[in-house]
Amino acid sequence: ARTVKLAVIPGDGIGPEVVAEGLKVLETAIAPHDLAVETTEYELGAKLWHRTGETLPDSVEQELAGHDAVFLGAVGDPSVPSGVLERGLLLRLRFDFDHYVNLRPVRLYPGVESPLAGVTPEDIDMLVVREGTEGPYAGAGGVLRKGTPYEIATQDSVNTRFGVERVVRYAFAKAAERPRKKLTLVHKDNVLTYAGELWQRTVREVGAEYPQVAVDYCHVDAASMFFVNQPARFDVVVTDNLFGDIITDIGAAVTGGIGLAASGNINPDNTFPSMFEPVHGSAPDIAGQGKADPTATVLSAALMLDHLGVPEAARRIEAAVSADLKSRGHGVRSTSRIGDDLAARVAEQG
Ligand code: NAD
Ligand code: IPM
Ligand code: MN
């Protein structure tokens, strides 16, 4: 049997709760396959930082690099200054492991109530391809005259031809595989003229190799509106790191909430392990109460199985989630109960 080495980072808040359910469903999904998953858990996050002041020791990062994939819950805790864990752990892994594609499907599952009136699953089925290693996330910039009335904080957006082209290429390839074959660039080229022009030109040039893909463009403010009042406009969306962060939370909100939104931080060249995690954070407001919905994490495990070349197992997880969502009434289930129910549905389809 093939063995997949999986590094697991439960993290903070609801992270450990949802990751436990994700692993439960993952194990059930691979059972019929000639595949074994060997997990190694890493205690990174707020606790380690309080104990040692470290977010990601170099030796640990090297160990992570030796795995086939990383499965992460969430990081961030009210007791740690904002950004320390987010930048020091999550973003560092995205950058160092070259996760230049942050893949975020936005789908309305049948039976899920959207806050939008009159939308059907056919209306919301998009794939947001968010750039993952550049933009305002790069950490370029600085502060001058700190603490004075003349303080200046700059936060530069880094956009390289290399970085833009590789994510745009990925998005075109994905669009070409889908029935609608439409790619929308979301940016703000009326204001962010240097970066916007680079993105536009790159989409035009790469698009010449994909005549079968229809190309569209939306400013990010209008795109935010269209996600709400005309979501059917979108098929594949390619966008900058920060715009992608924001519009995928909108995407989550219109498809049943952040508890259902999955993501993959993908290194398509496989030079480092890809990392799979829910779109949501550590939700300190509900942590430790068994209230978190593990579905986003379970669907992230399905994205991981696709990446690892086990699409049949991924489809079974998605089918189980779909059936579970269809049958949801008003009764409230705990995190682990939802995980048990999903695992049982996956097993039924095995
Ligand atoms: P959040 O996603 O943690 O929570 C926003 C709201 O959604 C909260 O009301 C929360 O209870 C709810 N929610 C989130 N996940 C849920 C789930 N699975 N089921 C039910 N409800 C859920 O965002 P936030 O409050 O802005 O951030 C909290 C912390 O998480 C911060 O430290 C932030 O930096 C961090 N964060 C981490 C990640 C990550 O690790 N990938 C992502 C986003 C935020
Ligand atoms: C996400 C999160 C992260 C991001 C934060 C926690 C750094 O919001 O994964 O969407 O901004 O990318
Ligand atoms: Mn986010």
Strand line-up of the largest beta sheet: 2-1-3-12-11-4-5-10-8-9
Order of helices and strands: EHEHHEHEEEEHEHEHEHEEHHH
| Largest β-sheet summary | 10 strands, mixed
Head-to-tail CA distance between termini: 18 Å
Domain Isopropylmalate dehydrogenase-like: 5-342
Enzyme class: oxidoreductase
Cofactor: Mg(2+); Mn(2+)
EC number: 1.1.1.85
Polypeptide structure, described:
The protein has 350 residues and is of the alpha/beta class. It has two domains: 1-105 and 260-350, Isopropylmalate Dehydrogenase; 114-255, Isopropylmalate Dehydrogenase (3-Layer(aba) Sandwich). Helices cover 41% and strands 20% of the residues. The chain is built from eleven helices and twelve strands. The strands form two sheets. A ten-stranded mixed sheet has the order 2-1-3-12-11-4-5-10-8-9, with helices on both faces. Strands 6-7 form a two-stranded antiparallel sheet. Helix 1 (15-30) crosses helix 10 (311-326), helix 5 crosses helix 6 and helix 9 (295-307) packs antiparallel against helix 10. It starts with a strand and ends with a helix. Bound molecules: nicotinamide-adenine-dinucleotide, 3-isopropylmalic acid and manganese (II) ion. Manganese (II) ion binds next to helix 8.
Ordered list of secondary-structure elements with their pairings:
Blueprint (H helix, E strand, L loop, with lengths): L1 E10 L3 H16 L4 E7 L4 H7 L5 H8 L3 E6 L9 H13 L4 E7 L17 E7 L9 E4 L7 E4 L5 H17 L4 E6 L5 H15 L6 E6 H10 L6 E4 L1 H13 L8 E5 L7 E5 L16 H13 L3 H16 L8 H15 L1
Parallel strand pairs: 1-2, 1-3, 3-12, 5-10, 8-9, 8-10
Antiparallel strand pairs: 4-5, 4-11, 6-7, 11-12
Helix pairs in contact: 1-9, 1-10, 1-11, 5-6, 7-8, 9-10, 10-11
This protein binds nicotinamide-adenine-dinucleotide (NAD), 3-isopropylmalic acid (IPM) and manganese (II) ion (MN).
